[in-house]
Structures are given as structure tokens and as C-alpha cells.
Amino acid sequence: MKKSILICAGTEKNCETLTELLDSGDYDITTVTTVSAVRELDIEMFSVLLFSLPLADESGIKLIDELASDSSPPVCVIVRHDIPDKALERLIKDNAYVLKKPVSRSNLTLAAEFLSSFYGKSAGMRAKINELERKNSELKLMSRAKLVLIGNNGMSEEQAHGYILRQAMNRQMSIDEVCRRIIDAGGELS
Fold first, then answer.
1. Domain 3-103, CATH among 3.40.190.10, 1.10.10.10, 3.30.1490.110, 3.40.50.2300
2. Which one of 3.40.50.11440, 1.10.10.10, 1.10.10.60, 1.20.1730.10 gives the CATH number of domain 129-185?
3. Measuring CA to CA, how many Å separate 171 from each of 14, 20, 99, 143, 150?
4. How far apart are CA 54 and CA 44, in angstroms?
């Protein structure tokens, strides 16, 4: 499966140069030259965001700051060799992978491979975390519903648990929905 890479550079010529450096047939490459064009895209569809600064309509550092979140694809930034230390520190603080110009084909390809591989692995971890958070929410909801049944109806924990499961089965509802209704109704299932 081809990796999808967004290349954003200040000029079409820069975009073409970076595309040529990367183009080994392994990548599906989209190019843009402005921050506004990046904002119109669904960046979640890319495995790497590659920026060559500055961009046509602004420096791009503010955009990279916005994009460098836990859930967005990794950001690789190509900067001039004389970039001020403060700007470089900000990019690194934003978790951007920084390459200084001139960039070789091998360095750019290695960065793209490393970042897309990392993103793929971290996506799997994020999915597991989301599943665990969902299960934790379900357990909390079940516990609250059981407490309502125990407190208002004098049931034991086992009786409350069995009651919730039977109601879900008999009413053809999810356990979460049964629990929400029990909590909202103060122990009576309407």
C-alpha cells in the first residue's frame, strides 16, 4: 500500500523538487504551496506532512504548531541552514522532525519512511487506547447503574448485574442504554 504524503512548499518548483527526491513509486504525493490550501485538506488521510519553509502566504511555523498534535500525522520540516535558533527550538518543541537544507534523496526518504512507520504504529496504539477508554466508560456506567439499583431497590450487586443483563436482552437494547435509563430513572426502568 502506498504511503500518502502531503508536500507543502513555498513554490511549485520546490514542490516538484521534493516530489522528485521522494518519487520512488512508493508514495502517493499531494502538493500545495499555501497554508490556506493545507487547511482545506483532510490531513488525517496522509501518513506524513512534509513542509519546506517558508510557505507562499506565511512562514508556516504557526500552522505546524497547530498540526503537531497527538492525533495528526507526523510533521517533517525542511528549513534553511540559517534558521534562527528560536524558530528551530519552537519546531522541535512542536514535535516536528527537522531537516536542514540542502536535503539529500536518502535523508528525505529515510525521514519519510521513519515517520510513516512511526505513525502507523502509533495509530494502532491510539486505537487500543480508545478501545480501553470505551470499555472503562462502559464499566463506570454499569457500576453507577448497579449502585442506583442497590440503593433504591435493595438489590445485591449480583442481582443488579443480572437485572441489567436481562433487561438488555429482553428489551433488545445495549447494556449502556439500559444503564443510562436506570440511572436517569433513579432505579426504575421505563
1. 3.40.50.2300
2. 1.10.10.10
3. 62, 61, 59, 20, 21
4. 23
- Give the pLDDT confidence of 164-188 residue by residue, as tens digits: 999 999 999 999 999 999 999 887 7
55/71 Cα distance (integer angstroms) = 23
Partnered with residue 9 across adjacent β-strands are 52
105-153 vs 157-171: helix crossing angle, rounded to 10: 110
Q: Report pTM.
A: 0.62
